[in-house]
Every structure is written in C-alpha cells, then in structure tokens.
Amino acid sequence: MSQYQVLPGPEAFLPPAAASMGNVLPDPGEAHIEGRIVPEDEAYEVFARKVLGAKVPTIFPGPLVLWKWNDHVAEKAKAIRELANEAPMRIIPMADYRPKYPKIEAAVEINPNHPNLTIWHNKIDVCIFIGVHCHQANLSLKIIRGGTNCYTMAMCAMAGHEDACLSFRDADLGKIRKLIDAVKKLKSEGVESQAIPFKQFKLSRAGLVDQSAN
Amino acid sequence: MSKEKIQICEDLADVMPPEYQELVATATYGNQDRGWKDIGSSKELIEQHSLCAGCPESIAFRYILASLPAPEDTVFVGSTGCTSLVFPHVAVHNIHSLFGNQNAIASGLKRTLKSRFPDVEKDVVVLAGDGATVDIGLDMTMQSWFRLEKFTTICFDNELYANTGGQESGLMQKGFVAKMAPKGKNFEKVRLAEIAREAGCAYVAVLTVSKPNRVEQAIKNAIYVAREVGPSFVQLYTPCILEIGKQSMEGLDEMKDSETIGGRFVQKEYITDEAQKLLDSIKEETKARKKAAKEAKKSVNA
Ligand SMILES: Cc1ncc(C[n+]2csc(CCOP(=O)(O)OP(=O)(O)O)c2C)c(N)n1
Ligand code: SF4
Ligand SMILES: [Mg+2]
After folding, report:
1. In the predicted model, is pLDDT for residue B4 greater than 80?
2. Ligand 2: residue whose CA is nearest its atom 3
3. How many CB atoms are located within 10 Å of the residue B239 CB?
4. Over the range A79-106, which residues count as b (16 or more CB within 10 Å of their CB) and which as e?
5. What is the pLDDT of residues B148-173, one digit of tens each?
6. pLDDT tens per residue across span B26-46
7. Which DSSP helix (H) or strand (E) runs through A204?
8. Domain count of chain B?
9. What CATH number is given to the structural domain containing B132?
10. Does residue B211 form part of some domain?
C-alpha cells in the first residue's frame, strides 16, 4: 500500500483517520512529516519554514498549557509566548473542549468540535497545536483537514498525532524552546516572515481590550 | 483539585476568553457555605445550555451546581438524555456513561478515588434522567444501593424519555399518554423513593425544583450523608414542558401544582437515625461557624 500523505485539505467532509490508512506514529527521537517518519531535527526545520512562509501562522495552546497545573507548565506557557513573539505567530486559545453554543467567538477562540470556524474566520494557513489532549487534537485535526486548507502541526506530549500534517512527540519545555531556536536560525539565514502584520488581541473579564487606546 | 489549582498561566492569561478569567476570579470554589444565593452575584459553574427554553432541568442544574459543598472535589457521572446535553457546559469534572450504567461507573469511581486520594473527600454524584435511573439502569442503580456505595444519586424525573421524543418510563404516571406512548400507561408510577429506602439509602428526598432553598438543602444533605454514612438519593421533578405541551413560562406552575397536598411530588424525606444524627451535628457546626464569622466581621468593623 502506498503511503497515505497527510496534506492540507479540504480533503473531504469526512477524511479518513490517518491511522486507518496505515500511517504509524514516530518512535522517540523521531517526528512525522505528512505521514513520513523522519528524525526529529528535520521536522524542526520544516516547522520553522512553514511558520515563516505563512500569512497567518497561529499557535493553538490547549488546556494543558493554558491552565497553571504546576510551575513547569507556567514555563511552557512562557516559552509559547516567546515563540509567538519571535516568529511572529498569533495565539488563539482552546481553553477547554466544551462545544460553544450558541455561537463561538471565532476571532479569539477555537474549539475542537468545530475548529474549522476559527480557521475560516481568521484565514489561518499554518497552525500548531500545543497542550491539547490527544483525543481532542485528533478530532480537531481531522475536521481541519476535512474542511480547510490549513497546514496543521502538533507538539504532542504523548506519542504524536498521525492526523496532523507534521507532528512531534514527547513535548516538553526543551522541545518548545527548540521550535523557537529553529525559527531564529532560519531568520539568521535571511528567511523572512511572510505573516500579515497583526496585533495580538487581548481579553479581559469585560471582553476585548481596546488596544488602540494604549 | 483546589481553588488554588484553578489558575491560568500568567503568560497566556490575556488571551483567555472572559468566562474563564471570571471563573478564576469570582467562582465559589473553596467556599463551603456556597449555595443558591450565590447565583447571579458570583460566577456560576454553568455556561450556556442547549436545553429547550424554559426547561426546568436548566434551573435544577443551576441550583445543584450552586449547592455542591465542594465542586472542586466533585465528579459527576451523567447518562444519556437531556441532562447529558448540559454537562459539556459545566465547570465541574464529569464523566458521561453509557445509558443506564451510571451507578456502576460511579461505584468504581468512588472506590478508586478513595484509594487514590485517601486524605481528600471526593464527592461522586450521579445525575441522570428517570429512564436511565429506573428503567434501563435500574439494575445498576439498585446494586449500588444494596452494596452501600457511598455516593449520591440524583434523578431528574420528567416522567418520560424526553430526549428520544416521549416514550413511557417507569416513573410516568398511570394513564398518561405521550407522543410515543399513545395507548396510555397501564401501571402506577414506580415508587422509587421507597425502593431506595428499602434498598439501603441512608438519605432519600423527593421534591420539585420550584424552591431553590429546598433543593440546596436536599443536595447538601445527600452529599454529606454519602460522605459519612451510605448511599443517598434525590428525586427531583423537572417536568418536560415540551412533551407535556406546556409553554416555556409554565414549568414553575406545573411544579407548584404537583407539590400541593395530594400531588405526586409533595416533598418527602426518608432519613436513617445515623444520617439524621450526622445532619444535626453538621447543622450545629454550620450555625456556630456562621455565628463566629459574623462576630469576627463585627469586631473588624468596630
Ligand atoms: C444503551 C442505550 N440505549 C438507548 C439509548 C437511547 N436513548 C437516548 S436518551 C434516552 C432516554 C432518556 O430518558 P431519560 O433518562 O428519562 O432522560 P431525559 O431525556 O428524559 O432527561 C434513550 C432511550 C441510548 N442512548 N443508549
Ligand atoms: S425535551 Fe423536555 S426535558 Fe428535554 S430539554 Fe426539552 S423540555 Fe427539557
Ligand atoms: Mg426522563
């Protein structure tokens, strides 16, 4: 059977689970790019190229890094912010997995039950999931591949996501820092970010903070 | 989990949607005297819900969530039905179980939490419809009571299978005709409260959700008794206005009518002596604590 390639969609209303097409997860020290198992270092460079080449590169942090379960998580959150500033990338949180009824604020949040709405609304062409529980990540990644043309990546704390176009495994602080280093390295070699200029939104208990007032 | 754990990472706090920031700032986790009166003045542990407009289940959820003595250490076990549409919007741990299995899941969960967290009181609360509790899940419901499993079972009794369009349930009244029960029910409403008492529940309450203070007391009693004495059961009348042909504003009247003398839901409680003793002592303690807090406040102001 030829290798099933996990490419950006829109693939179909119900794209197949990559695992059902014979794709396997990387072993420790490895990653996968579009279903092909590669040494992890190769994937860092591809990650950086994808991010810098995108118009709307976006980080989707999940509950495992948004909520301060312990001090180590706070360090990961800090590194994620650093990555966003370095690239630059937008940050749009997946605060939990509740379906958002009656209406999701697609400009400022993403939800695993209808992640395509956020991708469409913001015209996101490259994204990375960090700190999303595996089941919810795989669900989202499939929906995104089914209905959008976004290139999906995942920094997974477990064994990786076969339904992402590119996936790391065993995420920890060091690996998030390696993402930052990879971006810095390419930039130092003259690769420029193609991101459309933006200002990261800010939210307070009252809603969107008007940044023009600052 | 404790109140201190419900925090957002500082570096990502300003991208978190307002409802989560609110949850951290003004929810009542950690306050053992929380109750229905907090509704409206503090962050409720329920966001939107997808029940029908005016469905009494929605207000029942609000009262129950506001009354849990320790939501940060509570795990709900739900089952399929209209209630299961609400759990995804609730900021308390919850597990969805296969229809009817809820009390079996809760038995295992309670035992596991006890051995995993021997020093923390973890409250397990089953919340399911009448179809799940009395019909398809009756075996599991009763086995958990026979075995004296220490958790609370709450049944949202709307006297039919609402979520699937109005089939007959054991808790439906005799003679009632529903959309999917056109010949009318042939036998009496199952006397679940009495079954619960005989099967081993140390605290049993039957009431409607028309009066929030009563719901609060019943839920607190049930949870305290489940912690110390044995299984507890609360049967709440939450009429399905859709299936009985009422308007959204008419749920409250329906509940009030049913709890007047001679009605199906006149409030009743069955409490064992041991459970009563416990509830009396908790009442005394709470009174003393509140009095001390009041006096402390007075002396600060003086
Ligand atoms: C094992 C299984 N059997 C049947 C069903 C179909 N089913 C879904 S909801 C429901 C009835 C729910 O009735 P009830 O427990 O009274 O809850 P309500 O919707 O009335 O709140 C049934 C039979 C199911 N989901 N799973
Ligand atoms: S069908 Fe009935 S019980 Fe279910 S949400 Fe609607 S009114 Fe409530
Ligand atoms: Mg029912």
Report:
1. no
2. B240
3. 27
4. bbbebbebbbbbbbbbbbbbebeeebbb
5. 999 999 999 999 999 999 999 999 99
6. 999 999 899 999 999 999 999
7. strand A203-204
8. 2
9. 3.40.50.970
10. yes
Taking the centre of ligand 2 as the mean of its atom positions, its distance from the CA of residue B19, in whole angstroms, is: 26
Beta bridge partners of B129: B156
φ, ψ of residue A47 in degrees (nearest 5): -55, -50
ipTM for the whole complex: 0.95
Q: Is the backbone of residue B134 left (phi > 0), alpha (psi -120 to 50) or beta?
A: alpha
- Mutate which of B167, B172, B238, B243 for ligand 2 pocket (most atoms within 8 A of beta carbon): B243
Region A30-49 average pLDDT: 98
Residue for token pair 């930039």: A187
Please tell me the pTM assigned to this model: 0.90
Number of residues assigned to chain B = 302
Average pLDDT rounded to a whole number, residues B19-30? 92
**What domain range is A92 assigned to?**
46-161+171-190
Residue pointed to by tokens 């119900």:
A14
Q: What Cα–Cα distance (Å) separates residue A71 from each residue in A64, A132, A158, B10, B48? A: 12, 18, 20, 11, 32
Structure tokens at A20: 């059902």
Which-ligand-closest: CA of B141? 1
Q: Over 80: is that where the pLDDT of B302 sits?
A: no
Residue A110 has pLDDT above 70, yes or no: yes
Task: Identify the residues whose C-beta falls under 6 Å from ligand 2.
Answer: B 51-52, 55, 57, 82, 158, 162-163, 240-243
Q: Which atom belonging to ligand 1 lies closest to the Cα atom of B57?
A: 21
CA distance B26 to A206: 13
Tokens 């400022």 belong to residue: A108
β-partners of residue A32 are A37, A167
Residues B132-159, mean pLDDT to the nearest whole number: 98
* Residue B14 confidence (pLDDT) above 60: yes
| Cβ-contact B149, B110 below 8 angstroms | yes
Domain with residue A177: its CATH number is 3.40.50
pLDDT of residue A115: 96
Tokens 């039919």, located at residue: B160
Domain annotation covers residue B239: yes
Name all contacts of A186-190 with Cβ < 8 Å and 24+ positions apart.
A186/A45, A186/A48, A186/A49, A186/A52, A187/A52
Most confident of A81-95, A99-113, B34-48: A81-95
- What pLDDT sits at residue B1? 44
